[in-house]
């Protein structure tokens, strides 16, 4: 992990993963095509190749789910219940309760139509992620999606983690498939004999999963580039280096490709953070993974002031942004690009990962410049409607007819003229060719 001054910072270091993504896409074209054309047979073949598991069945049975839920310890069930309640409570607030506008002679509005089916990708391999099940399925359920399926890699015994199945059960999900990686994305995009085709795929994953989502996005809806993990911690002289280092390592343990950055305007604090990261690293069970992340993408950046810190942050557009500063709300006003922001010393990113309520499926790789984190909005379509009275159409007719002629769309103009001529012979709309009148 290196300490660098802002002037020495090479922004290309933060965009290397996009280059890797393009190279990864080239590698997995064969996988996607194989699943698209061979279906279940390809899933079984690819699972044996990549996960070293000979699958007897692709779908998790209801008996497996029930047995898994029964095995989950009570304290874990209570933790899952708290997560589900808080995530559901937050996502329900995202509904717009005033979808209609009524004016004189007009009713304008929108109806919310949920997607018919959604596929959730839940990563596996290095860890179990029941939190991803909840974060992806609860907003989909809140939006009213009827069919939700989950794909997740099997363990070496060909099973799915008990706690993942328990989380799915608590969220009302029973269609779960033991398939991971790019082949899982292809299966949900095109359907196989066992895995149904869905309208949209959501969920984080490895570079292979992200690349697969980009490959199939012309054939199925996808959320965004979600993974590998990222964090920027902005720290002033009031920050506790212990907390800063802890949040950095919490993201570094996710993946060797995780981006882990601290930015401070105090050189002495930069050194303390570096020392604390290395000290705490020895206590992290996933030290090998975290070490590789820190070596590749670990930076502590020294800036002249907080304005420079925010400029760099907005350029990188991180998934997670932690503001460990004296006045975090003031700095929040300057945030333009970030997935989710954590204010103050005690807003641990881990709390947001699990149970505060806001979604932890967030844009990465710079896509937070234009995309927001997963929400209820991602699971329904807004279909707009309008109901215009005869009197209101007459008021608008001059404007409509003028604009139609300006654009050379005469039938548009006639569609209004004929309505009013037929309905009220005594008040025909004023004719116009759309050309400016001479003074």
Secondary-structure map with pairings?
Layout: E1 2-5, H1 16-38, H2 40-50, H3 62-71, H4 74-92, E2 100-103, E3 106-114, E4 117-121, H5 130-143, E5 147-151, H6 162-170, E6 175-177, H7 181-190, E7 200-202, H8 207-216, E8 221-222, E9 230-235, H9 241-252, E10 259-264, H10 267-281, H11 287-297, E11 298-302, H12 306-316, E12 320-324, H13 328-332, E13 340-343, H14 349-354, E14 380-388, H15 390-406, H16 410-423
Parallel strand pairs: 1-11, 4-5, 4-7, 5-6, 7-8, 9-10, 9-12, 10-11, 12-13
Antiparallel strand pairs: 2-3, 3-14
Helix pairs in contact: 1-2, 1-7, 1-8, 3-6, 4-5, 4-6, 5-6, 7-8, 9-10, 15-16
Could you explain how this protein is built, in words?
The chain is of the alpha/beta class and 439 residues long. It folds into 3 domains: 2-18 and 228-372, Nitrogenase molybdenum iron protein domain (Rossmann fold); 39-224, 3-Layer(aba) Sandwich (Rossmann fold), CATH 3.40.50.1980; 389-439, no CATH class. Helices cover 45% and strands 16% of the residues. It has 16 helices and 14 strands. The protein has helices at residues 16-38, 40-50, 62-71, 74-92, 130-143, 162-170, 181-190, 207-216, 241-252, 267-281, 287-297, 306-316, 328-332, 349-354, 390-406, 410-423; strands at 2-5, 100-103, 106-114, 117-121, 147-151, 175-177, 200-202, 221-222, 230-235, 259-264, 298-302, 320-324, 340-343, 380-388. The chain has a 6-stranded parallel β-sheet with strand order 1-11-10-9-12-13, sandwiched between helices. Strands 6-5-4-7-8 form a 5-stranded parallel β-sheet, with helices on both faces. The longest helix has 23 residues, at 16-38. The radius of gyration is 26 Å and the shape is globular. The protein starts with a strand and ends in a 16-residue tail after the last helix.
């Amino acid at each position: 992990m290196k300490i660098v001054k802002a002037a020495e910072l090479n922004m290309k270091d933060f965009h290397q993963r996009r280059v890797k993504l393009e190279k990864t896409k080239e590698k997995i074209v064969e996988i996607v095509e194989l699943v698209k054309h061979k279906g279940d047979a390809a899933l079984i073949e690819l699972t044996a190749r990549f996960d070293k598991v000979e699958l007897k069945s692709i779908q998790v049975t209801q008996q497996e789910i029930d047995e898994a839920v029964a095995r989950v310890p009570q304290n874990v069930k209570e933790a899952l219940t708290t997560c589900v309640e808080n995530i559901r409570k937050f996502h329900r607030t995202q509904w717009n309760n005033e979808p209609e506008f009524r004016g004189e002679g007009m009713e304008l509005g929108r109806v919310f139509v949920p997607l018919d089916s959604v596929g959730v990708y839940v990563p596996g391999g290095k860890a179990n992620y029941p939190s991803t099940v909840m974060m992806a399925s609860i907003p989909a359920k809140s939006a009213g999606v009827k069919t939700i399926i989950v794909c997740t890699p099997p363990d070496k015994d060909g099973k799915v983690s008990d706690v993942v199945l328990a989380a799915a059960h608590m969220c009302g999900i029973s269609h779960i498939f033991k398939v991971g990686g790019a082949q899982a994305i292809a299966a949900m995009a095109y359907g196989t004999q066992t895995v149904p085709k869905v309208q949209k795929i959501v969920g984080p994953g490895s570079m292979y999963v992200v690349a697969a989502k980009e490959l199939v996005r012309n054939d199925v809806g996808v959320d965004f580039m979600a993974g590998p993990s990222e964090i920027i911690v902005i720290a002033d002289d009031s920050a506790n280096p212990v907390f800063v280092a802890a949040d950095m390592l919490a993201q570094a343990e996710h993946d060797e490709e995780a981006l882990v950055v601290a930015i401070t305007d105090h050189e002495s604090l930069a050194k303390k953070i570096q020392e604390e990261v290395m000290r705490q690293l020895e206590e992290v069970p996933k030290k090998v993974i975290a070490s590789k992340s820190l070596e590749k993408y670990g930076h502590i950046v020294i800036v002249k002031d907080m304005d420079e810190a925010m400029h760099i942050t907005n350029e990188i557009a991180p998934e997670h942004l932690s503001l460990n500063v004296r006045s975090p709300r003031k700095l929040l006003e300057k945030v333009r690009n970030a997935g989710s922001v954590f204010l103050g010393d005690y807003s641990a990113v881990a709390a947001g990962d699990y149970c505060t309520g806001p979604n932890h499926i967030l844009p990465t790789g710079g896509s937070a410049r234009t995309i927001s984190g997963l929400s209820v909005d991602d699971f329904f379509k807004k279909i707009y409607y309008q109901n215009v009275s005869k009197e209101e159409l007459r008021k608008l007719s001059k404007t409509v007819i003028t604009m139609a002629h300006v654009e050379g769309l005469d039938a548009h103009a006639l569609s209004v003229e004929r309505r009013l001529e037929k309905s009220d012979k005594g008040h025909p709309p004023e004719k116009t060719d759309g050309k400016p009148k001479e003074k």
